[in-house]
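Open question from group meeting: does this chain pack into something compact, or does most of it stay loose? Before anyone orders reagents, we agreed to write out a predicted structure and look at it together. Recording both the input and the output here so the notebook holds the full record.
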Amino acid sequence: MPQEGNRGGFSFFAMVGGVMALLKVKEKYDEYREVAADDDESRVALTSADPLGGPRRSGEGPIALLDTEVPATRGRRAQKKKPCCLCCGYDCSILFKALGIVIGLYTLYLGFKAVRWALTDSPTGLEGMPTFGESWSCSDASFTYEDKLIQTSALMGTEYNDHLFNVNGYGLGTITIADGDSTSDEIKYEILIKANKKELLSDVSLNPPSREADGTVHKSRFLLQTSATSDDKSCMKYDVKVLVPPKLKKLHVSLHTPAQVRFQEGSKINLDDLYVTIYALEEKNLILTNKDVNANKLALEVHRGWIVGEASIVDETNISTQRGDGVANVKFYPTLPADASSSKPAVLSTATGKGRSDFFFIGNSGFKRPISSHHISAMNGDVYLTYKQANLNGKIKLGSKSFTATGVRPFQKPGSGWTHFVGSEDGEDEITVSSRGWTGLYV
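C-alpha cells returned:
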C-alpha cells in the first residue's frame, strides 16, 4: 500500500510540472503573436503614384513618396499584464493554474472510479471457481479401461467399520459420494477410466482390501493407481462413484491426483468420522460440501484449490487450506450433538493459507448450542467471518494484525486475553482469531 501511495504522489507532481510547461509555452506563444502584430502595424508605408495621373517630366516614371502620417487607428503596443500572484518575488500564477487543472482532472478521474465502483458488484471470493467435472482438459480421452464401467466393492474394517479410498498417479478425477445399500456390509464403487493413449491404461490397477485368514479385515483400503506418465501430451481421466452404506462409521478419501469431490444431492450420509484430503497442487481441485452429510467429526482439506458449499457441525468441523493458496467459502450449520442429551459446544476450526476465505455461521432457530470457533490464518490471506445469524452471546479474542469488526463491543475485564464480546461478557460462546493479515468479523 505505501508503494502505491508513492507512485500516486510522483504522478501528481509530474502532471503539475507538465501542465506548467504547457502553460509557459502557451504564454510565450501569445507574447510572440502580440509582438508580431505590433511589427506589422509599425512598418513604413510608401504612397503610391498619383492615381489621377498628374503631369510628369519627360523621362520620369511614377515616384512613390513616404507616408509620414500616423494612422488614426493605430494603437499603442499592448502592455504586458502584471502578475496576479507573487510569491517571494516570483510569478506563481502558472503554478496555481496548473494545480487547478490537475486537481480538476483528478477529481473527474476519481469521480469516474467512484461511479464505476458503485455500479460494480462486490467480489464474492468465488470468481474463477471451477465447474465440477468440466474443468479438466482431457476431452480427447477416447480409450476406456477394460472397455466398460467397472463395478466393484470393498470390505469395511471389521473392528471399526472404517474404510480408506486412496488414489495415486497423474490422472484427473471426479469423485461423487452417495448413499449406498442400507443392508450392505461393503462399500460399492462405480469406476470409469479413460485415456487419450491406449498404452496409458496399462498403468491402471485397482486394489481392494482382502480378508485375513481368520475372516476379518484389519486394514480396509481401496487403492486406485492411475497413469504414471505426466507429460503434457498424455491425459487420463477417472470418474468414481462411492456408495456408502449406513454401517460404515469412518471414511477417509485421500487423493494424490488433481481431483474434484462432491456429495450427491439428497444424500443422507451419517458417519462418525469423515475426512476428505486433496494433496495435489492443482488450482482446479474442488470439494463441494453438503450440509445433509453429517459426521461427528468432519475434516476437509485442499493443499491448493477450492472448498465451497454448506457443512454441518455435529461435534467438530475442520476446514483447512493452510498449506497453499486454496480458497474456502463455506456456510456452517450446527446440528444437535451426537449425544443429544449433552450440552457440548459446536466446535469449528479453520486454518487458511494465502487464498481468500469466507466463513458464515448460521444458527438454528429451534435450539441454541454453545459456539467454540477457532480461526487461524497461517499465511496471512484475507479472512471474512460472518456471525450475523449465529445468535452469538459471548467472548471474542481478535488477534489480527489488521481487522474490521462490526456488532462487537470492547471487552472490559482486564487481563483475560479477550478483546471483544457480543451480548454478555459471561456468555458461553467463544471465538478466537489469529492472523498476521486482515480479518473481517461481522456480527
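Observations to bring back to the group:
The longest helix spans residues 2-41.
Confidence is low (pLDDT under 50) at residues 1-9.
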